[in-house]
Amino acid sequence: MATTTDTDVAIVGAGILGVLTAREILARAPGTSVTVLDRDLIGSGATRRSAGLHFPRGASAEVRELAAESQQFYADLHTARPGLPIHPLGMTVVAPESAGERLGEVYLPEAKLRRGDELPPVVPALPEGYAAWDGDGCQYADVHSLTQLLAAELRPAADFREGVAVTGLAATAEGVRLTLTGGATLTAGHVVLAPGPWLADPAWRELVAPLGARVKKIVALHIEVPPLPGDRAVVFHEEDAFLLPFHHRGHWLFSYTCQEWDVDPATVGSSVTAGHLREARALLSRYAPDLAERCVSGRVFCDAYGPAGAPLAAPLTEDGRVVFAGAASGSGYRLAPALAARTADLIRSLPSPRKATT
């Protein structure tokens, strides 16, 4: 028999953003009833496949503000909870020599960019006219594990429903009624849609479409070379690509910008293709030819991108009961704490904003 339950806030999507939004809401109003739903397990989807790299930069003033806020959140969290899978590491930015002033505008003051004295060992030489800058404030996380750990801490205060998809969403006099797989319904005072790349799900496609967000394929190659202690992340600024020493997995990761747009997360292939390998090797061979030859596998998925390259936290209905959060343009982990706070700001029933405790 179908059942109906009530909750103050329903969050659709249990990735890093959905879980941090639940955390932010409960930090502001501990008595709030929060239900987090996901069609899969906590931390699946884009969160499971995330490289988890955070570095202090932003292409616009808005993104820089979000990055600075998230930078502080993660720094505080790591200080208070050093056992969490957040790993600080050094950073080297590679760009044309003429880009120095521009880099100073894009990277936050916390990065403390300065011309590097020597290249990282994995980059034996730079193309003519290029230079390297060292920076601070870089870290990466096992985002899948981190999301699960943060969710586990929330379980006494929040209701998590894994393997439960939302098949319908309708406004009623009592609130927003969600129809769930299995025939159950859930009525919520407010709904936060944090669906990752599932923008076109029939339950909310018409609500989300006016935001103008799109879905793009994300590709990262695994390089079967063990990173050494002290190896740094290398950011190729002009190409929007990076090399990341995945110490916790024992290999390097190379992420580059794949230009395959308007893909469907339900049907996108999860295997690395010969085309992906050619694109990645062609770029990486300019800087690290030995590593380029070792690109043989990787991870493929997709992510949602905002129309202006900035993430979105926006009401979807006139009464503000349904809110969208996401489209972080491949920076979901990097910007999630600040975006969660912006999302909580839109829930009118919550008290005045304050930072979530670590």
Give the rounded overall mean pLDDT.
Answer: 93
Order of helices and strands: EHEHEHEEHEEEHEEEEHEEEEHHEEEH
Question: What fraction strand?
Answer: 25-35%
* Helix content bin: 10-25%
Task: Fill in the CATH topology of the largest domain.
Answer: FAD/NAD(P)-binding domain
Tally of DSSP β-strands = 19
pLDDT below 50 for ≥5 consecutive residues: which ranges? none
SSE-based structural type:
alpha+beta
Largest sheet: 8 strands, mixed
Q: Compute the number of helices.
A: 9
Which CATH top level class of the largest domain fits? Alpha Beta
- Silhouette: globular
- In whole angstroms, the N-to-C terminal distance is 41 Å
Mind telling me the CATH superfamily name of the largest domain?
FAD/NAD(P)-binding domain
At CATH level 2, the architecture of the largest domain is 3-Layer(bba) Sandwich
Oligomer: single chain
Number of domains: 2
* Alpha carbon gyration radius: 21 Å
Structure summary:
The protein is an alpha+beta fold and 358 residues long. It has helices spanning 16-28, 46-49, 61-80, 100-106, 143-154, 205-208, 274-284, 289-292, 332-345; strands at 4-12, 34-38, 53-54, 86-88, 91-96, 114-115, 130-135, 139-141, 158-162, 166-171, 176-180, 185-193, 214-223, 233-236, 241-246, 251-256, 295-305, 312-315, 322-326. 25% of the residues lie in helices and 30% in strands.
Structural overview:
- The chain is an alpha+beta fold and 358 residues long.
- It folds into two domains: 4-48 and 144-211 and 308-345, FAD/NAD(P)-binding domain; 91-136 and 214-304, D-Amino Acid Oxidase, Chain A, domain 2, CATH 3.30.9.10.
- Helices cover 25% and strands 30% of the residues.
- It contains nine helices and 19 strands.
- Strands 1, 2, 9, 10, 11, 12, 18 and 19 form an eight-stranded mixed β-sheet that branches. It has an eight-stranded mixed β-sheet with strand order 6-7-5-14-15-16-13-17.
- A hairpin with a 6-residue loop joins strand 18 (312-315) and strand 19.
- Helix 1 runs parallel beside helix 9 (332-345).
- The two termini are 41 Å apart.
- The model has no long low-confidence stretch (mean pLDDT 93).
